[in-house]
Design goal:
Distance between the termini: 17 Å
Number of domains: 1
Number of helices: 7
Shape: elongated
Helix content: 40-55%
Number of strands: 9
Oligomer: single chain
Structural class: alpha+beta
Strand content: 25-35%
Strand order of the largest sheet: 4-5-6-7-8
Largest sheet: 5 strands, mixed
Amino acid sequence: MTASAKRGSCNQLCTMTFTESTLSFTFLAEQGELIAYDRHRYYNAVKGSGLRGVDFLGIWKENTLVLLEVKNFRLREAAQSGPAILALLEQPDLVFTAMVEKKTDSLKGLDVIEALLRKRRLYRLLEPFFGKLPPRWQRSFPWAFWAKVWACRSNLRTVLWLETDPEYDGWEKSRVSQFRQELRKKLRAHYIELAGNGENPFEGSLLVE
């Protein structure tokens, strides 16, 4: 999957817009900050440790760490993705297991990045001052974001954003709904939320189109 990002005008409301799996995610910067975790330059250290990361990492409302993984099971290119998507719908355990592993790997990856940054003397010297900066100024210092990640790690929300069609060939609406219900139940046991298909746990902060 590919991701792209752009920062909107800050004349009134500063926004960050990312594209992942043909979905557009627009995050109000006044509500926090979002980065493409698996595209970030520090992620190279994570990959070097054999770990995989979620699509996005964010700080929401200054005190909540967010791990966000995006999956789009809409049949936008049925000839190529249709059979693979239907195979996954038949086996919700595969989707569940992959998400749990990504959550675990992502948190381990944060430990790798933290260890990397703390080796830098300048980072250690500046870290006590990052939290004293106004939020808008903090966004000018990438290290301030990572310092906030460590501070918010105990208040974690992990979300699988999964878009599905209302129905598929051979799959009625009730069967798709059952798939989502079963997956939600499994994920909840590992403190992972299921979003998408009109469900937005960050309503007012995140717009998805």
